[in-house]
Design brief:
- This protein is α/β, with parallel strands linked by helices and 213 residues long.
- The chain has a single domain, classed as 3-Layer(aba) Sandwich (Rossmann fold), CATH 3.40.50.720.
- It contains five helices and ten strands.
- Helix 1 links the parallel strand 1 and strand 2.
- The radius of gyration is 16 Å and the shape is globular.
Length: 213
């Protein structure tokens, strides 16, 4: 497959690039500082660094045009002032629809998943107040995907651990999985996202994920 990866220089994005290349995909890695990826020995005939700005319509359209699917690991600050997660996804969705690219797997946060009573985790009184601003950003990104015409999947990630993939993780549709240790290796998260973009197990669903016990 021909994949465009947004947030390619971030903690999860770098793992996504590696796993996508290892799986034989052609990778277009999009970002403002994609030169840094060269440090990760990604000089590969199936790798293309695409320098651009996720809020720029032309940059994003050119990046997704001709791709089979998109993976997004957009990040940003946690205080709610950074709109990269929400408005970035909004522009990606718009340009994918314009380019006729249907499949996207995106990274979100735990708060967008359902609690046991089917309310959102981020709406529960126990949800940490300091995570509400970024939780709202993830929620808005989810809603942009849900209301689009795309074949979307968004992962409600728990706490991220900077660690390689072990292949030992569990997933569930729309809620945290069982068992749930409340954290996920960045490598495992990337491994799942690359796998999901081809397997389509969770089309039009949020996904809960956790390292296995």
């Amino acid at each position: 497959m021909r994949l465009t990866i947004f947030g390619a220089t971030g903690m999860v994005g770098k793992h996504i690039v590696r796993h996508a290349l290892a799986s034989g995909h052609y990778v277009k890695a999009f970002g403002r500082n994609v030169e840094s990826l060269i440090d990760y020995d990604l000089r590969n005939e199936n790798f293309e660094a695409v320098k651009g700005y996720v809020f720029d319509e032309n940059d994003v359209f050119d990046a997704v045009k001709g791709s089979n699917a998109v993976l997004s690991a957009l990040g940003g600050s946690f205080d709610g002032t950074d709109k990269t997660r929400s408005l970035g996804i909004k522009n990606i969705v718009s340009q994918m629809e314009k380019a006729g690219v249907k499949r996207i797997v995106a990274l979100g946060g735990l708060g967008i998943l359902n609690a046991d009573d089917n309310s959102l985790i981020m709406d529960k009184p126990t949800y940490p107040k300091e995570f509400l601003p970024v939780g709202k950003e993830h929620l808005q990104a989810y809603l942009y995907l849900k209301n689009s015409n795309l074949d979307w999947t968004i992962v409600g990630s728990p706490d991220l651990v900077e660690a390689e993939a072990t292949g030992e993780y569990v997933t569930a549709a729309d809620r945290p999985p069982t068992p749930n240790v409340g954290k996920i290796n960045a490598g495992n998260l990337a491994l799942f996202m690359v796998s999901e973009v081809a397997q389509n197990q969770y089309l039009n669903h949020r996904v809960g994920i956790s390292n296995a016990l």
